[in-house]
Model the fold of this input.
Amino acid sequence: MPLNRLGELLRQEVVSIEAAGTAKGHEKIVTRIVPASGTKGPRFCLEGFGDRQFIRMNSNSYLGLSLTTELIHAEEAAAQKYGVGPGAVRFISGTYQPHVELEKQLAAFHRREACMITSAAYTSVVGVILSLTTPETGIISDELNHNCIINGIRLAQPKIKKVYPHLNVAALESQIKECIGQAQGLIVITDGIFSMRGAVAPLAEISEIVRRYDAHFPRNIVLMVDDSHGVGAFGATGRGTEEYCKAETSDILVGTLGKAFGVNGGYIVSSNPLIAFLREKNPLYIYTNPITPSEAAAALKSLELVQSDRGAHLLGHLRTMTTRFKKGLVDLGYESIASEHPVVPLFVRDTEKTSALVKFLLDHDILATGLNYPIVPKGDQLVRFQVSAAHTAEDIDQVLGVLGQFKSI
Ligand SMILES: Cc1ncc(COP(=O)(O)O)c(C=O)c1O
Done:
């Protein structure tokens, strides 16, 4: 069927997104990666840009692990042994030894009883929310939480839904109080690191408030943290925002293997009963393939590296590069936020100017991400930079040099 009427309506919608300047537009296609050499970190070549080599300031691979030979070899060896796909979902013989070992190691890394890996952090979050929400559940969420949390809540249709102003723990407390007597159980959900600007959730305070009111709810208050941008990259030993904030461990922690760990996939760590329940109830675990055994093997190697001296060195270098970049940015007169996370926002607060800065950077061989409405609220338009342990001081200074040129136009 031609879908002629619907097709035309959808085409018009795309045209209006483009006219508003908020389209994501054509995807840039990486054709080659030039390995780091001397004082230069890795460079990326793109289709349609000839031999030009770009510094990537928009990679989630915060420790640079996605390009390390150890991980590549671990993935290759497992692919030779198990093949390149699981062949089925977990309960239909799709569970391989690296999956189980990875779950064991991730639970130990986060000092939890149990872990469940899924195909993505996105599906981890949605699956947990869907599985735990009953017709008597209330959910309370930070207004800048990631899209997976927003859509998870929409799908779960809780009895009560409340959204508190970004990072505002006093508002969170009031909302919890309003739910007393109205819901059997509550789920309080926050990102650990907010992906758009690298803000850090005040997890110690949030956890304290949750514990204070927990006794009012027969099905408890569950504190759930999506720390996709924190795990591996943040905290003294890479254990994420909880470690950074010295917070009590949350009831459910979701992480991704696709950012600092450099591979792909998501995971949930929690108590034994909760993970056992999710293995029986979570549709986004039961009815969809897991990550490949070879991805699991690469993630195991990554976890081993993060906990080694090399991991400590990479974390230290990441912190040094992040401080260097943020200081340079602020010294040039740009607006950012006070956070030590390698997501470094540069607030432009205007859609056209954000696009102009991203283009200027591209013209000068730098890849960074412009975030416009509706991805961020109107007035908060920004260019998001992501520092990596693969960057050298020379790379960071080169980017700052280009930002300095833009300032003087
Ligand atoms: C807070 C947060 N949660 C979840 C995700 C999704 O991670 P994954 O790619 O593993 O699904 C992201 C990715 O951008 C994120 O920023």
